[in-house]
TrEMBL record:
Presence of the UniProt keyword NADP in the record: yes
InterPro entries in alphabetical order: Flavin_OxRdtase_Frp, Nitroreductase
UniProt organism field: Enterococcus alishanensis
Name by which UniProt lists this protein: Nitroreductase family protein
PANTHER family for the chain: OXYGEN-INSENSITIVE NADPH NITROREDUCTASE (PTHR43425:SF2)
Amino acid sequence: MNNQMLDLLQTRRTYRDFDENYQLSEEELQVILSAARQAPTWMNGQFYSIFVVKDSSIREKLVAMNPGNPHMLKSSVFLIFVADLNRSKKVADKYEVDFPIIEGIDPLLTAVTDTALAMNSATLAAESLGLGSVIVGSIRKDIDAISQLLNLPDYMFPVAGMSIGKPTVEMKVKPRLPEEAIVFYDTFKDYDYQVIEKYDETMDKFAEARETKIWSQKFADYFSQKPNTAVDQFLKDKKIQK
């Protein structure tokens, strides 16, 4: 099946090395932002905001907090996608109704889902323009400091950042888990652990330079550590969770 959008979806990849001299035009930026804003959203609620970080001094501070991601400064633009329930609070105040979002996690899940969908549309728009991007979820490690940098009010939660620019290093399309580990028809059907072992072998052959462990070991180690509790405290401080 020859389809440009399908080709784009199936060959999407992450880029981390960008031409520092390439300037994203205002027209290109608006195409990306417009695509993000047109993403699917629950009940047309649009529970997110997008911060376009152009100020190099702010970007330098972001890299200082997260030195493993120098592209946050070197890319053409850095976006931060924020789950936004502050707008909903304004509406609740206008109509003088309660706003009990801390009573459950569903409002947060809704806002984070909307944010992720907008972010995905932005990556596809960037690639359609011949640009590259990388998602930076590790900004949540310094979530409070980044919130202060952005001057976020209550009810707003940084989800992830995104560097966008002109790639200088060609990347290969990374293999994904086998379909039987991801796709289920009608009901869950457990699969043999060999499916994961097979994927470990695939990724080992793929030999991405930045990986120092096999796929399964990486995530076994990651989830053996306590979660980032700074996020929990931030959600409490911003009146999003109890």
